[in-house]
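so the lab meeting is tmrw and i was supposed to have these ready like two days ago... anyway. pasting both below. for each one the top line is the aa sequence and the line under it is the structure tokens. i havent really looked at them closely yet so no promises
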Amino acid sequence: MNRFLLCHRWVCWATGLLMVLPAVAASATPTGISAVTHASSSLPLSAAFLPAYHRWFDGLAWAAHIDTETVSNLAGGIAPGTVAILVGHAGFSYHTARAGLWAGGKFTMNVLGIESGDPEDKVGDVQGVSNLYAHSQFRLYRLTFRQHLGPATLRLGLMSANDYFDVTGQAAQLINSSFGITPTLSGNIPGMATYPYSGLGVMTAIHVDVWEAKAGWYQGDPLQPFSDPFGQGDMALAEIDYRNTAQEQTCVLKLGAWHYQQRAVYSAVLGPRTSGLYAVAEYAELLPRGRRLGLFLQAGSTPQSVNLIPYYLGAGFRIKGLLPGRGADVFSMGMTRAWLRNSPYPAETAYEITYAAQVVPHILLQPDLQWVIHPGGRHPNALVAGLSLHVQLF
């Protein structure tokens, strides 16, 4: 427990230091397309994603960031209290074309280190009030090869399925885990290849005009990625995407299906055979004075009786550059609702409001507030406050 308190004190100290930095530094804008702007505009400020890779020499590039977070259950749930989370994520890539070899190839290797308390011990929710939380560990997170072949892309190796499937870009800054992956997937499948337990798999995608179709096949037990990887079960996903950009507006529609199965001898530990559907709708528009509005709607269904969470619905919006002179900041609000089976209450619902502020280039500070109704379908309503610090290393 002392190490969690130490991490908590470090977060508070770093936050206090950042808050007294000069205001002119807070409004500084890096030249070009910075990794911070890229993270604020498209990728979640979470451990699973790295900022844009930076070229080192020849075909080699690297990226790294450190994320810290305190999550405090202020009232309700199981018990009041605070936990701290510290995550480091680093990666290297090797582009074959830049190295003077063949075109379209890339090798990637990422490592992930986590030191964390468990917010669910305080809140008791099933959706996850923090997308940063995972059991403390140090592991190889990604080891992949990618090859572009005309309109098609092939990837294989150790990777997370959620990097490519069931992704909602306009929900990127919301911290509740359900906005990152629908809980009809994550809440029903303990053996899914996703953060922090990426798994061995292969996927392909074909992009034609405004359409993209992709399919993937992943091992069913990513906790043991190299021990009989597909002998214990597997998971298949397929998704079709529509993306249309006209003038200053962008519309995105996604429809996906998945099937998960285990050999009978492992089903009691790794989960049952089940399948489901998910859908995502997104809309983005450029507003006056450089602001950007984003809207999203998510849904998931897996009604089989073996599933704890048969249905899911999420919605929200974000505004980038809401305040004058703060073009990289993102304000976001969202609602997420997971229906529960065999519970005193029919559903767990969470409302979230958050603001991701670029304090200086490559450093973002994000306060967050969530109101969770019926956590776990059995606990009192919970008020949860979070404070995240995202530091990109260059």
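ok protien two:
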Amino acid sequence: MIFDHPRLYEATADRLAAWHSEGRLVIDYDILPGIEAAPGALTLLYGGHNRGKVLIQLS
């Protein structure tokens, strides 16, 4: 959607960064351990069952 409004990108990025630094915007992560979790991570992501960014922790 951002590509539909390129003139608003900078102001929006600034506002989101401010909200994040103020604690008003919280970023959630779903961290799954090990490469063997990769298939499940894709299922989680594409099934829409994740809370935030889906990450696989390798170490």
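from a quick look at the 2nd one: Strands lie at 29-33, 53-57. Helices lie at 9-22, 38-46. will dig more after coffe
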